[in-house]
Each structure stands twice: as C-alpha cells, then as structure tokens.
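Give me structure tokens for this 535-residue protein.
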Amino acid sequence: MKTNPIISLIANGDLRASANQKCEAEQAAMEKKLAAALAAEGYTLQRAHSYDWEKQHGFIDSQKHGLEVFRTIPEEAPLIVAESVWQYSQHILPGLITHKGPILTVANWSGTWPGLVGMLNLNGSLTKAGVDYSTLWSEDFTDDFFRCGLRQWLKKGKIKHKIDHVERYKKFDIPAAIKKLGQKFAREVKRHKYLMGVFDEGCMGMYNAIIPDEVLSKTGIFKERLSQSTLYAKMLTVSDADARGVYQWLLDRGMTFNLGPDEATDLTENQVLQQCKMYIAAVRLADEFGCSTIGIQYQQGLKDLTPASDLAEGLLNNVERPPVFHETSGKELYKGEALPHFNEVDECAGLDGLITYKLWKLLGFPPENTLHDLRWGRDYKDSELDAFVWVFEISGAAPPAHFIGGYGGTTSERQPAMYFRLGGGTMKGISKPGWIVWSRVFLDDGKLCYDTGLGEVVSLPQQETEERWALTTPQWPIMHAVLPGITRDQMMARHKSNHIQVVYAPDKAGAYKGLLAKAAAMHELGLEVCVMGKF
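Here you go.
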C-alpha cells in the first residue's frame, strides 16, 4: 500500500510556560489546518516532538529541548516550523543552522496569537545566520496565496515571493543637496563616535537583534556592555522623594495611571514609583558611561526583581520628560534631550534610532522615534479610507510626543500578569495622524542592511481602534499605519524582523526629504540601502 511522503513539523515556543500554555489550543488548531492542507497535496504532516503533559503544552521551550528534538530529525527531511506563539529563536537555531533539508516557516495571520511576530523574528534570525528558508502566513490555510506557496515549496523546496516594491539605493534618484547633507552627517557620526549602552544582549531569543562589534564599529557606534544587575543596584540608590517627583511631574502634565489595590493583578502606585526609580537610574548610568542611546533587556532576569521597564523606556524616548539630576553635583542630565531607548535591546533599532534622532534634529524635525512590533493588520474601508491598515504596537516604549494629546492622551495600564509577574505600567496612547518614515536595520550575509519607506498614520473610528486593541494587546500603544505602494504580502516577504522603526515628519514632503537624507547617510555609513514602496 502506497503511503504519503512525510513532512516533519516543529513548534518552537516561549521560555515562559504560561505563554506556551495559553497558546497551546491555538497551536493545535493551526496544526490541524496545516495537516489538512498538506493532505490535500498528498503529504502527511508528522510532529517531531510530542505534547508534554506535565508542562501542559507541546512547544519546544529551551535550547536544550531544541537540541534533543533535532537529534531525532533526519538532516535531509523537509521541515515546517509552525508558530502561533512568541518564540525564542535560539531554542531551534542550532538545529536549523545545521539542517540540510528545505525549511518552511509558517505563522497564523492573527493579532491575538503572536505567531506572526514570532515568525518574523525567526526569519530575521535565519537571515542573519545565513540559513536558506521559505516563509508563509495565512488566516485559515485554505486561501490561494497559501496553497500555491505550499505547493511550490513541496515541489521545489523553496518559495519565491514578489518583492517588486524594493528599489536599491544605486537606482534611486536623490537630489544632490539632500545626498550631500546625508553624507556629511554620516561622516560626522563616524568622526564623533557614539556609545550604545547595552543592558544585557539577546532579549527573548532575538539573535537577529545582536550586531557583532566589528560590524557595528564601522558605523562609528560602539557598545558599552552594561548589566541589568547594575541597573537594579542603581535603582536601590534612588530616593523615594526623587521617584515621587517624577511621578508627580507626570500627573501634573495630565498623564493617567489606572491604579488598583491588588499587586498581583492591578497597577499600583508602588509599581509606578519603582518604575520611576528605574527611569532615574537608567539616565544616571547612561551619563556615567557616556552613552548616547541605551537598551534594557528587562524580560529575563530583571522581570523577577522589578516592575516592567516600559514606563521608563517611553519617558527616555521623549524630549520633554521629567528632569533627572546627578546624584552629587545636582546637574540636570541630558537637559532638553531625549535619551533614545531601544526596546528589548534590539541593537539594530538602537543604531537606527540614534541616527534618526541626530539627523532629525539637524533637519529641524521632532526627533522622537521608537520601534514597534509589526504586529498585524487588516483591510479597513469607510467613506474616507480604503486601505490595508497595519497595527504597530510595542509594550510601552513609544514616546508621548507620538500620541494624540501628548502626556494628556497617555494612560498607564498594568502589563499582563502572564508576562509581567511584578506588574508595572505601560505608556499607552493612540498615535496621531501624520506622515512617518519607517525603517529596519538588519543583518544579511554578515553585512548591515537598511530598508526604509514612507508611511501614513491614519485616524480610525474609536470603535475600530478599540476592536484592534482587543484583538492584540489593549495595554499597549497603537499606531494605525498605511504603507503606500506595499501590499501585506510584500511587506511580510521582505521584512526581516518583528520590529519596525518609526519617526514622524512635519508633512509628506518633509518625510520624503528625511527618508532621502537618511538613506544617503546610511549608505555613507556602509549599510546596504533599499527604498520600499511608491510615493
């Protein structure tokens, strides 16, 4: 009797059992649909690892576990990595780097279940590691896009997506004066040399977010490696009075804190005051070590000691922020400046954010910028708008300058207990309408690359905003973004990270000028530059 050829499947997961347990049912449903799609093509899907009844989930949840699984998978086997949860890429990178068979990464197109951002991170990590792979995504795994792509992978071992929205720097026409400005700026960056404060690398498995020192140094930016334990120790030296001063400053400017009585489930004043101490400690350490930008890992280690870092991160990214003074001299630190913070120690975003901040100041534009997760999106249509609108969200690091109403439009809500046991508040707001430049620095074949394009932040009805929040993470800041000339699938096929960097410009013309100047600067710094979309 003839049997169908077998396709192996692995499901990489979070390090945190609670996240894996919550997403287990969705993962099982996703795999059932994948199995049906493969059966329709004459193949059998077979899991390479089993459900763990003690842990109550079936995900690979450590690098040790990943190595154990890959020892059982034939090196030449066609392999699907199926994701409906945030995943730590290092769990499976050792196996994928040495695997010789065709690899397909697949995610569920969902805002609620974070397989989409997990897959994007894995894709960026595989690209950095030089591993050949193909990638697909779908809402229900029955659409023509998914079926055709799957069929192509089964027959040829790879999928070729359309990325005709990409134009390389050498073919892109930049006016001489703007190119000269960007090039001169870049040469000054190299001469000046800046320090990037890194509070522990490798947050949540983001291998793609670590830039090798010898590569980063060519841009004129160098790492100052710091420890999260140093940050915690510095927090212990911050007085209660100083922390309360920061808190009061925020209240005076109209920021709202949604407080409750239960430390386990609510945001409390105690948590907020600890976050204010972290903010002060971070600024003081950055000053002590001469850093122009910093990134706090937070998720592992520090999360077991303090409330979340997100409130501090959002404040650091804002030019107007509570003053912080030197412990002994009393001098105000970084007066009149933001201290750009790269969430989750994404050094690619750190490089991008620092260059953006300095260049936007030179251009006379508001310099506040942040990364977001390229979280999800769907079509939206009414009498004024007919477009695919992305949901950009990050866990609270967006600056109030990006929000409608500034600090007055900013609320702080407790981070979900599933991820943040000790709580802590976010910086939540709705991003104001306007034109942005979006970008991503990533590593490919040992080289730094830079993708960029224009985006328009649009205003959606409150009901639509609330629905999008409910489908994703309602505690986090949200940006409704339209990317002209780029389809959903083009963006997904090209983007090499779960993160995307954004900065506002005064208008569309200003955004275009900024995009061109920054593209010229990044090229002068040695990055391979591509411009996306149509303007």
